[in-house]
Amino acid sequence: MPFNLYKYYEGFGGATILIALAIMFFAGFLISRVTKLIKLPNVTGYIISGILIGPFVLDLISPTIISGMSFLSDLALGFIAFGVGKFFKKEVLKATGGRVIVITLLEALLAGVLVTLVIGLCFQDLGWNFALLLGAIATATAPASTLMTINQYKAKGEFVETLLQVVALDDVVCLLAFTLASSIVEGLESGNVNALEIILPVIYNLSFVALGFLAGFLLKLLIKGRSANSRLIIAVALISLISGACILLDISPLLSCMVFGASYTNFTKDEKLFDYVDHFSPPIMLLFFVMSGMNMDFSSFMTIGVVGVIYFIVRLLGKYGGAYLGALITKSEKKTRIYLGFALAPQAGVAIGLAFLGERMLPSSIGDTFLSIILCSSVLYEMAGPVLAKIALIKSGAIPKEAFKKEKKNRKIKIEYRINDFPIKEESLNEKFLEKKEEALPLGHDWRKTRAGSYPYNIARQKHDEIK
Predict the structure, then answer these.
(1) Residues 451, 454, 458, CA angle at the centre, nearest 5°?
(2) Backbone angles phi, psi at 41, to 5 degrees
(3) What pTM, to 2 d.p., does this model score?
(4) d(CA 221, CA 205)
(5) Rounded to whole angstroms, how far apart are CA atoms 320 and 106?
(6) How far apart are CA 55 and CA 3, in angstroms?
(7) d(CA 41, CA 390)
(8) Helix or strand run (H / E) with residue 407
(9) Cα–Cα distances in angstroms (integers) from residue 409 to residues 192, 406, 412, 468, in the given order
(10) Which 8-state DSSP code applies to residue 442?
(11) How far is residue 176's CA from residue 252's CA, in Å, rounded to a whole number?
(12) Could you say which DSSP state residue 56 is in?
């Protein structure tokens, strides 16, 4: 039974909000330390902490504050999409673009078709409208937990690039599928299909694709010659602006912010800004996932029953089967075929937003069941998703083994080369230093006393930073 502990600090205006934020930050941090001990990603810890401080356990956060922070989901999705955009470089798209599109279409549409057919045939009392909307939402994949897991373990390589591109394009397919499905449902309910209701959301999304492209070009102009702090401020302002505009038109900021990041990286070839944003966004990501845990409705678990279980399983089978088939057709490497489907399990964000729209299109009793299925399964997917994503990243070789080894503290720096003893030609120096496996010179080394000058010292410093 909830303790309603938020009442002890409720009614103090701004102080209440700040206390609630502090509780969310501390809860997310502490629980993630516990989950880290059992080798679980931080995302899982954040969601569990949200459940613990949420309305169904300790009830530490006021419902008013929870509802008032709903904008966080759109802002977090904006940051996530902007970060994913850096993987859409022209040279990468030329090499993998067709392959990624084929994999995305197959894994998304196979999941949607399977869910629609299985739910429609097995639960005819719910109706085909219910099955059609559920199948459309089944196509979506949430990039947030996957991206957080990738960042936490510094995963990289072809598998990661393919995964992030597929996850990003997934939501494009979902938005188009849901727009078409909802138009058909509304048409069947009213007796006619309104073409404008199909076209208008597509026009909005295409308009915001153009806005994201222009924002990337604008960012290039605004940050020229600016300091790191100023560049970060301008980037965050543009991400917030795009996300806010998307809220006004009730569309997802994922597509627009993804194009924003992609256009910027192709205009400038600059990756430092993405590093700045990555260092700025962890508190926002923490709040986003803690909020996801707090919004988990345990009372709905009893209402979804067999329908929810079948939806949960069939969607996973569709995602895995479609990803495997797509990778097989495009002749992707074996590890991608086997493990890509596991990393596509998470579902939240766009799916939850569309679920509220779907609820309003269905009769009240069926609409409640529809929303409950998406909410509960999304939380379950978000709990299992990071674990499955981590397994896929490890098995595919995307996570280096070093990520799981504890770094030795107080490592001694070993000097194996002595640049004081002989002059070194600059043209051979870079190769010579890169070939050595020993660690670099201490940063306190005085290059002015050497014959070779500052060049070897700079190489040594660079090597030291990489080791550190």
Answers:
(1) 130
(2) -65, 155
(3) 0.64
(4) 25
(5) 10
(6) 9
(7) 8
(8) none
(9) 70, 9, 9, 11
(10) P
(11) 12
(12) T
Q: Is 152 exposed, middle or buried (0-12, 13-18, 19+ CB in 10 A)?
A: middle
Q: pLDDT 10s digit of each residue in the chain, 468 long?
A: 557 788 888 888 889 999 999 999 999 999 989 988 877 767 778 888 988 998 888 889 988 888 888 788 788 878 877 887 887 778 767 766 688 889 989 999 999 999 999 999 988 888 888 889 889 888 888 766 677 778 777 787 778 878 888 887 787 788 778 777 877 776 666 656 566 666 777 788 788 889 999 999 999 999 888 898 999 999 999 999 998 988 888 777 877 888 899 899 999 888 889 889 988 988 988 898 888 778 766 666 665 678 888 888 999 999 999 999 998 998 888 888 888 888 888 776 567 666 766 766 677 667 777 777 776 777 677 677 778 888 888 888 788 766 655 444 444 444 344 444 444 444 444 444 444 434 444 444 454 444 445 555 555 555 555 554
Using DSSP's 3-state secondary structure scheme, residue 396 falls into: coil
Q: Nearest Cα to 368, choosing from 284, 447, 305, 413?
A: 305
Contacts of 431 (CB under 8 A, 6+ apart): none
Residue with tokens 């627009």: 256
Q: Name which of 366, 352, 362, 361 is nearest 297 in CA terms.
A: 352
Calpha distance 248→302 (Å, rounded): 34
Residue pair 169/323 in contact by the 8 Å Cβ criterion: no
